[in-house]
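Forgive a beginner's question, but might I ask you for the amino acids of a protein and the tokens describing how it folds?
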Amino acid sequence: MRKEDKSTVIEQIASTVGKYAHFYLTDIATLNAAKTSNLRRECSKQEIKLLVVKNTLLKKALDQLEGDYSALNPALKGNTAIMFSNDANGPAKLIKTFAAKTDIPKLKAAYVQEGFYVGAENLDLLVSIKSKNELIGDVIALLQSPAKNVISALQSGGQTIHGVLKTLAER
């Protein structure tokens, strides 16, 4: 690969990293063509961008960005595919689902919510991270709970008062 081509690829990787809030480094080297196509299809359905890169080019792209990504350097060995997503736990769930069937892809590292997770042992932790939409749903449920309690108390109290008044009117 020519030097000009390498610099173009590095710039593309750096710009893609900047577009997404989270990314996962995985190893999909031993997947056959059919399984790789299935993985790409699932990634597309879940709005996850899958990109196979050379480790040296990825390292240079990360070096160009603001922030220190050196914590990911131990994971930059062997074959590397990057899963980009704006959903914190989407790629982790996809990796876990796929790995249950084929033991691949393997998580090498992840950059999620401005934190680094290096090693496959972090997969369960990453799956349990709540996405932005899940957190918003939890907050809304918590905010609605007191209002629902007040409304139900008023409704049940109204029925009780109505029943008492009806009984008194009949006597």
Q: What stands out?
A: Residues 132-170 form the longest helix (39 residues). The helical segments are 3-19, 33-45, 55-64, 90-102, 123-128, 132-170. The chain has a mean pLDDT of 87.
